Amino acid sequence: MGWYDRLLGLVIKDLGIDLGTANTLVAVQGRGVVLSEPSVVAIRKGTKTVLLDGQAVGEQAKIMLGKSPGNVEVVRPMKDGVIADLEITEQMLRYFIAKVNGRWGPFKPRVVIAVPAGINEVEKGAVTNSAMNAGAREVFLIAEPMAAAIGAGLPVAEPVGSMIVDIGGGTTEVAVISLAGLVASESVRVAGDELDACIIKYLKARHGVVIGENTAEQVKVTIGSAKPLAEELTMAIRGRDLRSGMPRSIDVNSTEIYEALRVPVGTIITSIRMVLERTQPELAADLIDRGICMAGGTSQLRGLVELVAEETGLPVRLANEPMTCVARGCAALLENLDALKQMLEVGSHL
After folding, report:
1. 161 and 21 in one domain?
2. Is the pTM of this model over 0.85?
3. Torsion of the alpha carbons at 26, 300, 160 and 151, rounded to the nearest 10
């Protein structure tokens, strides 16, 4: 690290960013995660103008979902782990960076951003340009499964096989890692948002009730499961009756939500099995003892860890603070930029 970077380090903190479809997390070197907010922005309809003088971002915007007037649009600028709206993503990033570091004029942070392992060059460029335009001095991209594995404390640089399954809002990232490289990986655009969409679709078809994204997420967290539960859970939800158009309240149970989630959960299991089938025998043997580590907010779905263990025959554990693994992994890489640059040179990051 040169003298200029050391001087800037006294003034402004470099950042690790998990730029997720559902949530954006920002970690600071040496301090851990300091910001976790929804990747949501409220704008004036037909424009790119963020409401409340640019403050209607994150939590401020999410509370408007499904409740905004006709002249206001609440948007998610990220879709399936990649940028869907470049300009709005820049404004969102600018807001989050300023919230963490303050407004230091010409002083800009270096940023490590995690992205899905399977994105193309155009998508990589969009992420880099957004971060630079939002106020970054230098941008490094790292594959989400690598960042998640580092944040979970896996020995990614050692000559042993480590397996990570990172299930976020937009994508599920599965990888076997050895010697700081992705030996086998799979990125599928089925994760938390798809689970929510399946709940919305099921309740509409089964009960004739339409619910919003926030309600679907609450149902998933409260009574959702990847396996049938020994003791059934129930929950009262409110939505709009499809026939009458009037508000309506119904009771749903965990068995129904399990049925609603079977297809997307099955897709996640299939992606894990595919990676295991492509893993070299010597590394696969390591996994018999080391098992699978699961990270990401959606990995906390009730019964999912047990289901993965049953389907693979391997020991499976949930990482400590699974939702923050990717952001913490990005921040950890800032402490050793030489190692990060070496990863980028050998192409193991994406």
Report:
1. no
2. yes
3. 20
Q: Name the domain count of the chain.
A: 3
4's CB contacts (< 8 A; 6+ apart) are none
Whether residues 211 and 118 fall in one domain: no
How far is CA 189 from each of CA 117, 170, 180, rounded to the nearest angstrom? 11, 6, 24
Tell me the CATH number at 219.
3.90.640.10
Residue 298 DSSP class: G
3-state secondary structure of 163: strand
Tens of pLDDT, residue by residue over 94-139, are 999 888 887 655 578 899 999 998 888 999 999 999 999 998 999 9
The identity of residue 215, as a single letter, is T
The tens digit of pLDDT for each residue in 179-230 reads 989 999 999 999 999 999 999 999 999 999 999 999 999 999 999 999 999 9
Whether 162 is covered by a domain: the verdict is: yes
The dihedral of CA 157, 164, 185, 193: what is its sign? negative
